[in-house]
Write a structure and sequence with these properties.
Helix 1 runs parallel beside helix 9 and helix 2 packs across helix 3. This protein has eleven helices and eleven strands. The chain has two domains: about 140 residues, Glycogen Phosphorylase B (Rossmann fold); about 160 residues, Glycogen Phosphorylase B (Rossmann fold, 3-Layer(aba) Sandwich). With about 325 residues, the chain is α/β, with parallel strands linked by helices. The N terminus is likely disordered. It is globular. The termini are far apart.
Length: about 325
Amino acid sequence: MKHLLPGQQKLSFEGRERVLLARTDALGDLLVSLPVQQRLLARHPKLEIHWLVRPYAAPLMQEHPDVAGVHLRAEGQDLAGLFAQLKPQAVLNLGHRDKTVTVAAKQAGVPIRVARARGLPQILAATHLLWKGRYGSGRHEAMNVMDFLSPWGLDGGAPETPRLFLSGAEQDQGERDLQAFTRPRLGIFFQGSGAGASPSQAWWKAALPAFAAAGWTPIPLGPPELSDLPPADLRGLLARLAACDAILSPSSGPAHMAAALGRPLLCLMGLRPNHSPDRWAPLGSSVQVLQYPGPEADLAGGMDRLDPADLLPHLERLRFHSGNP
């Protein structure tokens, strides 16, 4: 069964319609959802794309030429009022946990409401439902969110690489922030986010000299309490990522940010299926992934089984991608 309800035909956009994409969870979730916007505009360039996101994620959308508007999702807000004022032709609720988005869209009279079949109120409020499961499917999350385009017949094929943008002034600031560090610069995030595994601080203490001996200048970028750099907001962090020649990070929002900026990235990931590279690896032509050689359920010390020397060939390839000798 496809994602259309019985008796429904594929939809079409007629002109300069407004579409709202809702993704109100983590930074990485938002970034792997950007291909939905890119696919829509590649086929229908007159569309006006708006996003509903959490306040902490909104800065990612600054400077993005394809984004017409960003709206902040707050607890207890009048979502139906927001949608009634915005008057979108369609609301795609890409984040499955925030079920009230679809209900509010119906209350506001939004004509097309696409959602996952999660929770009876959302099921009754949607005009188009996705019944396909996400877990255990072997599909990347970017492919799962592309399913929301099935009512228009745009869900096939590989998702495009997410893209983020910086202003010239932001790029210059990132260079100034890191001007004390010689190239090639290796930006490092010590810890992942959510349920992702991370090496211990003892592992990093042993690994950093190995990276330096291989010719890199390691620069701890985060988390803030483990970095010697002055604190930066999310846009400042993007600028610092862009000023690095490569990034090394466990699975994290900043890893996805680096990939969306086109920076060479080595992402350390675990073995559990729901958090594996097949499902959550950052997307990009200069992304490499290394999984730790531990038991599937071992999050406490599994990644410490990595030999730092095993990372060096990956980092050498990233140095080639960065264009720095």
